[in-house]
């Protein structure tokens, strides 16, 4: 019963977008989603500078015109003057989803004490869930997949566990993932038979 999903992947970095260094954000997002998703998916990718109007226009285009049910941004969530990803995301929001930011900071504190410097937010715009992730490429896996102990058992569940059901609730496709990477949770009444 898996359905196809279009996912917007937006890397927000002055230096990656001007070629100072190679962007690792979009490759890291692609790599993680490639391992995690068992549903068919395609990506709409954008590499853009830390410019609020550009970020807002990109999020609107992906949500409104490109049929993205999920948009993951990476970068620009910190306190530096040019970090404006959360402001741009909130500016295009219909609804704020505070649980994602709260939980990602909690997960990230297991990895770095500077996790509290990320102002990352998540919002719903129309039929799209938009989630900010920090710019460090490794933060993508850390926040989406969560934390494992030495035996590989999950000790802190990543936020991706809640993303498919959120997409169900806003009228998007039914998305499934590989339990070995991330165990998606849905209430019993919302579960569909496996393919
Ligand atoms: N797209 C990216 N590709 C590779 N590394 C990145 C990327 N974005 C961020 N990083 C790394 O993570 C660090 C922190 O990310 P942050 O978003 O704060 O970048 P920054 O220092 O504001 O600079 P910039 O916006 O030019 O990437 C960066 O200094 C860089 O080492
Ligand atoms: N999981 C995780 N979260 C993290 C980090 C990280 O390496 N891993 N880096 C932190 C740091 S150092 C900063 S400054 C903030 C904001 O990063 P950004 O401006 O690149 O989005 O995210 C924080 N959150």
Description:
The protein has 195 residues and is α/β, with parallel strands linked by helices. It has one domain (5-190): MoaB/Mog-like domain (Molybdenum Cofactor Biosythetic Enzyme, Chain A), CATH 3.40.980. Helices cover 33% and strands 21% of the residues. The chain is built from 7 helices and 8 strands; from the N terminus they run βααβαβαβαββαββα. It has helices at 14-17, 25-36, 52-65, 85-91, 98-109, 137-145, 163-169; strands at residues 5-12, 41-48, 70-74, 95-96, 122-125, 128-133, 146-148, 154-157. It has a 6-stranded mixed β-sheet, with helices on both faces. Strands 7-8 form a two-stranded antiparallel ribbon. Strand 5 and strand 6 form a beta hairpin. Helix 2 (25-36) runs parallel beside helix 6 (137-145), helix 3 (52-65) crosses helix 4 (85-91) and helix 5 (98-109) crosses helix 6. The longest helix is centred in the N-terminal third of the chain and has 14 residues, at 52-65. The chain is globular and about 45 Å long. The N and C termini lie close together (5 Å). It binds adenosine-5'-triphosphate and ligand MTE. The site of adenosine-5'-triphosphate has 17 residues, from helix 1. Adenosine-5'-triphosphate binds at residues 11, 13-16, 21, 23-25, 50, 75-76, 78, 80, 135-137.
